[in-house]
């Protein structure tokens, strides 16, 4: 069992000042920081298995959202070889108020990246992999073709590995979504991140109803794909807004919803309005199941890709269990 010294308060892994990673936030006043409650404590990274995952990631010159976002679960996930790859570089063209990924002008696409991702997936022996990316508003297709190339490369080297994509919104990129769906990932995830009323302050480059429509369109294009979306709590949202968002996701036929606590990466990022209690997270999970989601994952440390492999197995089992019911209706 872990001693207290094995447990960490969660801090971004990249200790560089906000100014170098987020030049657009440098002039902003510092935001107040709240002391984290006891339930936001995680195991420190550093086990031999964590080191083995780290070695493979570095050898293949890959970027992970686990590191770039300063994810609190990295100790646990990497010990199980579960790393989430972030393709198309480490620099994002958006500047969301919650996100620790570096912002700026990204480099040209690396055409060898799909093969390197596929090699790493094979080396790690993953049964399920999550692929995400930075926003690439600078590319005419938003990076959709690159996503498709990564899926094809993984399929050819690891045909049994199931693939989950967590994509940007491809705003103003006609045809981009269709390219990714045609590559047939097993799970299509696009996060709403927060309630509609918070978009301007939290996700100013995105549009709530565009993101919702994107999820709905995925299901229209290929009803066999599982769709998934997630939000963070603690950004100042009201409970009735979260319930409305859940209804909106169900109207878009989304299968799986994730809800986690927002953690502030630096003082220049959006403040944490409050730490939502584990009981409140549980109540959202119950409500979500009642509203018809196939699966709900709702806890302070839930992240989109946390336990994604186990959750995919649950999704498959739930769909199978419902098949006769739906066939008879
Ligand atoms: S929850 Fe996701 S982003 Fe966080 S460490 Fe695990 S795989 Fe990486």
Automatic annotation (TrEMBL):
The keyword Transferase applies. Residues 1-37, 306-329 are annotated as: Disordered. Pfam families: Radical_SAM (PF04055). Residues 8-37 have a biased composition (Basic and acidic residues). GO terms for biological process: protein lipoylation. Residues 78-294 form the Radical SAM core domain. It comes from the Bacteria. [4Fe-4S] cluster 2 binds at residues 92, 96, 99. It is found in: Cytoplasm. Keywords: 4Fe-4S, Cytoplasm, Iron, Iron-sulfur, Metal-binding, S-adenosyl-L-methionine, Transferase. Its cofactor is [4Fe-4S] cluster. Pathway: Protein modification; protein lipoylation via endogenous pathway; protein N(6)-(lipoyl)lysine from octanoyl-[acyl-carrier-protein]: step 2/2. Its EC number is 2.8.1.8. One of its GO terms (molecular function) is lipoate synthase activity. [4Fe-4S] cluster 1 binds at residues 66, 71, 77, 305. InterPro entries: Aldolase_TIM, Elp3/MiaA/NifB-like_rSAM, Lipoyl_synth, rSAM, rSAM_sf. GO terms for cellular component: cytoplasm. NCBIfam families: lipA, PRK05481.1, PRK12928.1. Belongs to the radical SAM superfamily. Lipoyl synthase family. This is Lipoyl synthase. It comes from Methylocella silvestris. The gene is lipA.
């Amino acid at each position: 069992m872990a001693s207290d010294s094995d447990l960490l308060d969660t801090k971004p892994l990249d200790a560089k000042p906000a100014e170098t990673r987020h030049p657009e936030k440098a002039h902003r006043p510092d935001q107040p920081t709240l002391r984290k409650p006891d339930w936001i404590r995680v195991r420190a990274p550093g086990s031999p298995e964590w080191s083995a995952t780290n070695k493979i990631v570095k050898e293949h010159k890959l970027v992970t959202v686990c590191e770039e976002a300063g994810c609190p679960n990295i100790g646990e996930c990497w010990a199980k070889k579960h790393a989430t790859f972030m393709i198309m570089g480490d620099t994002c063209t958006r500047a969301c108020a919650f996100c620790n990924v570096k912002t700026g002008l990204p480099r040209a696409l690396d055409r060898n990246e799909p093969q390197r991702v596929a090699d790493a997936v094979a080396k790690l022996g993953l049964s399920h992999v999550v692929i995400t990316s930075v926003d690439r508003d600078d590319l005419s297709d938003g990076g959709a073709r690159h996503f498709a190339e990564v899926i094809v490369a993984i399929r050819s080297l690891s045909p049994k590995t199931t693939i989950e994509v967590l994509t940007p919104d491809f705003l103003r990129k006609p045809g981009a979504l269709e390219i990714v769906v045609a590559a047939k990932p097993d799970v299509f995830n696009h996060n709403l991140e927060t309630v509609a009323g918070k978009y301007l302050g939290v996700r100013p480059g995105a549009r709530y109803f565009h993101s919702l429509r994107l999820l709905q369109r995925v299901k229209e294009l290929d009803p066999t794909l599982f769709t998934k979306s997630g939000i963070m709590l603690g950004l100042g949202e009201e409970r009735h807004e979260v319930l409305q968002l859940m209804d909106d996701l169900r109207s878009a036929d989304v299968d799986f919803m994730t809800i986690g606590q927002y953690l502030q990466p630096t003082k220049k990022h959006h403040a944490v309005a409050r730490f939502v209690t584990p009981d409140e997270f549980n109540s959202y999970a119950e409500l979500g199941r009642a509203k018809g989601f196939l699966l709900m994952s709702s806890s302070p440390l839930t992240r989109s890709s946390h336990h994604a492999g186990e959750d995919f197995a649950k999704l498959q089992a739930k769909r199978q269990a419902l098949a006769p019911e739906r066939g008879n209706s």
